[in-house]
């Protein structure tokens, strides 16, 4: 398990420019879906990450993108094991008042463009122009 955590940390530091840290309280779901689409257009892949209760939101975003044919999950070779790029771990945090450590679950999902991504995005842009 230590190897997995190290792999998560090293992949996260290498891809900060295309990383979205998702909150389930700050922005609506489709804000993150649209932001992920823009990041995939720009960088060909996007890394979604979340802590605690926001994990369900990240999974939902990834499923929306995959079910619409826009994204595919990427696979990395880390620590002699093939791992789907859905990696979970826990991180230690401090409570605001007491200062004692609290563990929070963390997830990171790396999505890449599907083969049809550009075609689907062009069709969506054309449809948006027709609606105006």
From TrEMBL:
Residues 18-73 form the DNA/RNA-binding protein Alba-like domain. One of its GO terms (molecular function) is RNA binding. This is DNA/RNA-binding protein Alba-like domain-containing protein. It holds the Pfam family Alba. Gene3D superfamilies: Alba-like domain (3.30.110.20). GO terms for cellular component: nucleus.
């Amino acid at each position: 398990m230590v190897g997995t955590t190290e792999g998560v940390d090293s992949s996260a530091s290498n891809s900060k420019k295309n990383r979205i840290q998702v909150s389930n309280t700050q922005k609506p779901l489709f804000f993150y879906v649209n932001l992920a689409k823009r990041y995939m257009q720009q960088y060909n892949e996007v890394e979604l990450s979340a802590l605690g209760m926001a994990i369900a939101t990240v999974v939902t975003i990834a499923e929306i993108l995959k079910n619409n044919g826009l994204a595919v999950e990427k696979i990395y070779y880390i620590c002699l094991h093939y791992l789907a790029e859905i990696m979970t771990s826990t991180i230690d945090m401090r409570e605001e008042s007491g200062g004692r450590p609290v563990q929070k679950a963390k997830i990171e999902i790396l999505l890449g463009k599907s083969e049809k991504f550009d075609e689907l995005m062009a069709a969506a842009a054309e449809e948006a122009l027709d609606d105006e």
